[in-house]
Specification:
Rossmann fold, six-stranded mixed β-sheet, 10 strands
């Protein structure tokens, strides 16, 4: 049997662990599967529930590779549910269930033989509130590689992750101090460095700037733009200006009277913000509701 291939990012780095992929090389796969590889995620008829309460209904869309895709919409429309489906974080909620398919580089994340832990090594996640571990700055970044059995130059790996997170120059002389002693914006960049240290292919960000001041928010937005060269990024945000500044594509979700999130519109951010196809999109963007 051919060994499982790993996914290589355009930046040249190879993630240390792969999810289980098909044993056939890409050139032998069906044409529709090969075409799917142009997308980092393909969502097909996704519906989701928490117990008997439905959160998402029949979502179908693609997230392009090496682009920033924003998910916008009013509170309660299922934005966080959607982004957490991408790396199976919702699996940790006992009452959660979903229908439909999510393909990551053409492979079903919930298919037979799929490994949620390995999947999350490929797909990093940054949460709304900075959540550094009560450890040193160095140990925060080194945590993931150590757990994964990394045997290379750990100091170089930590430095590289901190540089990519635009934090190295600010912390290089205090790597032994607690990550909790950093400012809010620095803590969030530390969490991004921690996610990058395991060499992910994609990065999910669930309202990463909502707890930060404008200056820290600006630094994170600059960072998102620079990281999109090597990573596929999906960001949930309530901030319309932020979505327009940092994203290449935007997804607009809305929940109606039934409080079930549905896809209203998806497209290039410039088009969606200037010439939306759905009047509900225009109403939301201009602040007439939501």
């Amino acid at each position: 049997m051919v060994s499982d291939p790993v996914i290589v990012r355009p930046g040249g780095h190879t993630p240390p662990v792969s999810i289980r992929l098909q044993d056939r090389p890409a050139e032998e796969r069906p044409a529709e599967r090969t075409a799917a590889l142009d997308q980092v995620f393909r969502i097909e008829h996704l519906s989701a529930w928490y117990g008997t309460a439905q959160a998402l209904r029949d979502i179908t869309l693609d997230f392009p590779r090496n682009r920033v895709t924003a998910i916008i919409g009013p509170s309660g429309c299922g934005k966080s549910t959607l982004i957490r489906c991408l790396n199976r974080m919702n699996d940790l909620i006992p009452s959660f269930r979903q229908e439909g398919r999510i393909l990551y580089h053409g492979d079903d994340v919930c298919g037979p033989g799929s490994d949620a832990v390995a999947l999350r090594r490929h797909i990093g996640m940054v949460f709304q509130k900075p959540n550094p571990f009560p450890k040193s700055i160095f140990d925060n970044v080194a945590f993931g590689p150590r757990v994964n059995g990394y045997s290379g130059d750990l100091k170089a790996l930590v430095e590289g992750a901190l540089r990519r997170a635009a934090l190295w120059d600010e912390v290089k002389d205090k790597l032994g101090t607690s990550g909790l002693a950093l400012s809010g914006g620095q803590q969030q960049r530390l969490c991004i460095a921690r996610a990058l240290a395991v060499e992910p292919d994609a990065l999910l960000m669930d309202e990463p700037c909502s707890a930060l001041d404008p200056i820290a928010t600006y630094r994170i937005e600059e960072l998102i733009t620079s990281l999109a060269v090597d990573y596929s990024i999906v960001i949930v945000t309530h901030n319309m200006q932020q979505a327009s500044r940092v994203s290449d594509y935007t997804t607009f979700l809305l929940s109606g009277e039934e409080r079930i999130g549905e896809l209203v519109e998806f497209g290039p951010t410039r088009d969606l913000f200037t010439t939306p196809k759905d009047e509900r999109t225009e109403s939301y963007i201009t602040g007439r509701f939501g």
